[in-house]
Amino acid sequence: MSKRTVLTILAIFLAAVLVGCSKEEAPAPAPSQPAATTTAPPVDMANAATITGKVSYKDGKPKRPPINMGADAACKAMHKEPPLSEAKVINDNGTVRWATVYVKDGLGGRSFPAPAQAVELDQEGCVYKPHVVAVMTNQTINISNSDQTTHNIHPVPKINREWNESQPPGAGTLTKAFAREELAIPVKCNIHPWMHSYIHVFSHPFFSVTGEDGSFTIKGLPPGEYTIAVWTESLGTQEQKVTVAAKETKTVDFTVTGK
Amino acid sequence: MWLHRYALLTAAATFCLIIAGALVTSHEAGLAVPDWPLSYGQLMPPMVGNIFWEHGHRMVAAFVGLLTIGLAVWLSRREPRRWVRRLGWMALGAVVLQGLLGGLTVLFLLPRPVSIAHASLAQLFFCLTVSLALFTSRGWRQERPLRRESSEPPLRRLAVATTAAVFLQLMLGAAYRHDAAGILPHLVGAAVVTIGTACVWGRVRKEHGDEPALRLPAAILRSLLILQLLLGGAAYWTRVATAEAPQPQLIMVALTVAHVATGALVLAASLIVTLQAYRRLAPREAQAAMVSAAEKAA
């Protein structure tokens, strides 16, 4: 093999590697809402409707596996008993915790400003609190570390920009935001592989994350027909068509299964 | 002899480095240290959580880098064969490139092409160190009459094709590990490697069973492949079975890392069979000349 051939192969290899390195932010996805934001009327709060309900699970109450934190003595020392996985949490009333219910379609071209209030995401006891965070595009997320060990925060989005930053004990709050709508951005700590969280980024404020009673409430909706969707980490997704009239409060329940 | 032992040490350390790299991937520790070449701006960060795996990998890699520098220099001073000296410098170039790829994969947040290139170059570098250990051995230097073979295709070609198939299979495995490909191409690759290995083993047993330089590595190749198939099945099963459990699960990590390590050994064994086939068997043209000379003599 001649020197020229070897150099050519090497150059192609390096070029392929460097091309592979470029992780530019992907173009924005085709939005579920029409793009013409200027023509849509603003929401008349006097006539706003509410959608409420709960997300139920119909296959009993699965056991939550314990998390082995033995890889970091500081993490293990923070718990008398190993904490349980947050991936599939069924509440005592048979509802699902950490399900996210949101308006998937039907808002027309309305645009909504990001709230000034920041959302908090803490690392406490070597788990993310809360396990699921929902924000609007460009809304501030304050990320803090309450533990006496170093964490790193590594969101792995498909559309937004990926980043990976470490946060030692006592370090200041990290202030972040995501510019593009994206459902379920996985967040992980590469130092503690059991640490997982999800961040949802919406272009509107009509979303709700279920808590210990599995219920949700979406307020301030203009009258109209909507597609309401529910996302869960390990129990799939569902959608329903819902029509709400002015000032109406409508109940919409979801039932998910483990299959 | 000491040079050969040193080359063996370098190859063994490289094998350990492949295991250390596999442990990083299985623990999802590739980004536990976000900076490079230092770790959190230090030479020795606190080894907690996944920092232990990532920084440990860097330390083993630095050790292998130093060993490779030593090997290249030693070869350049003591080795009479020019092509072996060149191979030593090539190994040094490969380990430097491998270090750069490792740094790129951290700084650019594990881009799949770089991660797969890093995993693949690791295997190529391992091949270089194994080759150097073989070429510096006493057995390799012994001059013996070349063996003839009658079957088609020649063992040389069979062995080259099998080694290439094993390397491609390791690349497919890396692509699966880094979520760039599904399991199906890796399964097809396993079938191709199995066929190739069976052909090589069958040919060696049939025609060169009395040549230890071929029989021993071919037998090891066959045994390693059987082990590798079992490990692959077990690793995949544990990955599926523990998918919903908090990661990493020890059994999944252990079986997957063993699968990666055995894959490297399969490649090394196949490479040794190939190199020995080129060393101990007469090429087809030479065989024809040998037959012609024998006929003339008769």
Mean pLDDT of chain B: 94
Helix-strand pattern of chain B, N to C?
HHHHHHHHHH
Task: Tell me the total number of β-strands of chain A.
Answer: 17
Roughly what percent helix of chain A? under 10%
Which residue ranges of chain A are poorly predicted, with pLDDT under 50 across at least 5 consecutive positions? Answer: 16-39
Largest interface: A-B, 36 and 29 residues
Structural class of chain A: mainly beta
SSE pattern of chain A, N- to C-terminal: HEHEEEEEEEEEEEEEEEE
Regions with little confidence, pLDDT below 50 for 5+ residues of chain B = none
What is the helix content of chain B? Answer: over 70%
Chain-averaged pLDDT of chain A: 86
Oligomer: heterodimer
Spatial strand order of the main sheet of chain A: 5-11-10-7-8
Terminal CA distance of chain B reads 44 Å
Distance between the termini of chain A: 57 Å
Task: Using the CA coordinates, give the radius of gyration of chain A.
Answer: 22 Å
Count of individual beta strands of chain B: 0
**Which shape of chain B, going by the Cα principal axes?**
globular
Can you tell me about this structure?
The complex is a heterodimer of chains A (259) and B (298). Chain A has 259 residues and is mainly beta. Chain A contains 2 helices and 17 strands. Chain A has helices spanning 3-21, 73-77; strands spanning 49-57, 100-105, 119-124, 127-129, 132-136, 141-145, 151-155, 165-167, 174-176, 182-188, 196-202, 207-209, 215-221, 224-231, 237-244, 249-251, 254-256. Chain A has a 5-stranded mixed beta sheet with strand order 5-11-10-7-8, with no helix packed on it. In chain A, strand 3 and strand 4 (127-129) form a beta hairpin. The radius of gyration of chain A is 22 Å and the shape is globular. The termini of chain A are far apart. Residues 16-39 of chain A have low confidence and may be disordered. Chain B is mostly helical and 298 residues long. Chain B contains 10 helices and no strands. In chain B, helix 3 packs antiparallel against helix 4 (112-135). Chain B is globular, with a radius of gyration of 21 Å. The termini of chain B are far apart. The relative contact order of chain B is 0.11. Classes of the chains: A mainly beta (259), B mainly alpha (298). Chains A and B meet through helix 1 and helix 2 of A and helix 2 and helix 4 of B.
